[in-house]
From TrEMBL:
<dbReference type="GO" id="GO:0140282">
    <property type="term" value="F:carbon-nitrogen ligase activity on lipid II"/>
</dbReference>
<keyword id="KW-0573">Peptidoglycan synthesis</keyword>
<feature type="active site" description="Nucleophile">
    <location>
        <position position="93"/>
    </location>
</feature>
<comment type="subunit">
    <text>Forms a heterodimer with MurT.</text>
</comment>
<dbReference type="Pfam" id="PF07685">
    <property type="entry name" value="GATase_3"/>
</dbReference>
<dbReference type="InterPro" id="IPR043702">
    <property type="entry name" value="Lipid_II_synth_GatD"/>
</dbReference>
<comment type="pathway">
    <text>Cell wall biogenesis; peptidoglycan biosynthesis.</text>
</comment>
<dbReference type="GO" id="GO:0016740">
    <property type="term" value="F:transferase activity"/>
</dbReference>
<dbReference type="InterPro" id="IPR011698">
    <property type="entry name" value="GATase_3"/>
</dbReference>
<protein>
    <recommendedName>
        <fullName>Lipid II isoglutaminyl synthase (glutamine-hydrolyzing) subunit GatD</fullName>
        <ecNumber>6.3.5.13</ecNumber>
        <ecNumber>3.5.1.2</ecNumber>
    </recommendedName>
</protein>
<keyword id="KW-0133">Cell shape</keyword>
<keyword id="KW-0436">Ligase</keyword>
<dbReference type="GO" id="GO:0071555">
    <property type="term" value="P:cell wall organization"/>
</dbReference>
<feature type="domain" description="CobB/CobQ-like glutamine amidotransferase">
    <location>
        <begin position="4"/>
        <end position="200"/>
    </location>
</feature>
<comment type="similarity">
    <text>Belongs to the CobB/CobQ family. GatD subfamily.</text>
</comment>
<dbReference type="InterPro" id="IPR033949">
    <property type="entry name" value="CobQ_GATase1"/>
</dbReference>
<keyword id="KW-0961">Cell wall biogenesis/degradation</keyword>
Amino acid sequence: MKLTIGHLYPDLLDLYSDRGNVMILEKRARWRGIEVEVVRVDAGDATDVRGCDLLMMGGGMDREQSLVARDLQHRRLNVEQAVAEGTVVLAICGGYQLLGEYFETGSGERIPGIGLLDAYTVAGERRMVGNVMAECPLDGPMETIFGYENHSGRTYLREGTDPWMRVVRGGGNNGSDGTEGARKGRVFGTYLHGPLLAKNPRLADWLLGLALERKGTGGGFKSLVDRWEEAAREHLVRRLAELDGME
Ligand code: GLN
């Protein structure tokens, strides 16, 4: 069995090393004996993403987003078809904004998205910056998710798109409605850098399971010893508690 991961615009969208998400998925699959191929998809490439089990798109600054947006429009149909055939999409921050209808920047430019998520984003006066703690349903009890956000955009979800997580600490989608990220079927967007999947191994495995469903097998793979990951998470809990005490 081979898992194929498509990494969209690795050069233009890699804020805070979002590429780490691809590395984590690759590693965690390989540690289970699953073969992995990572396909990089750059602007101008004619790659058919329907061959990918999972697509990852990182975040970027407004300028990079404008460059990507133009190319992404040409891929819209192909990405839609891939999703209809079971491909999982994970998009971070700037990438997440581009999955929605549009991102209106602070200078008033409207960067078009591809409308995979029924959501739109408008820049606010103040950037939302800092550590985030959120809660995410993973087919069972809520999982605590850690990440880092830095965005001017405020995202609002329309009907048909659910929030992916609930914010416990931090701004999330817009700093006002307590939502973080969005989910529509197999398409996921979040503001959380980190890289997200390095800090949240159970979320990584959950997404891996979803992507492998396309191969007729889901999760249920052997658990890994996540000693370092868990130590980092415990450290974060302590650090966030300290920060709360200081504020
Ligand atoms: N440029 C976008 C914003 O500021 C996204 C930033 C990011 O990906 N961190 O809202």
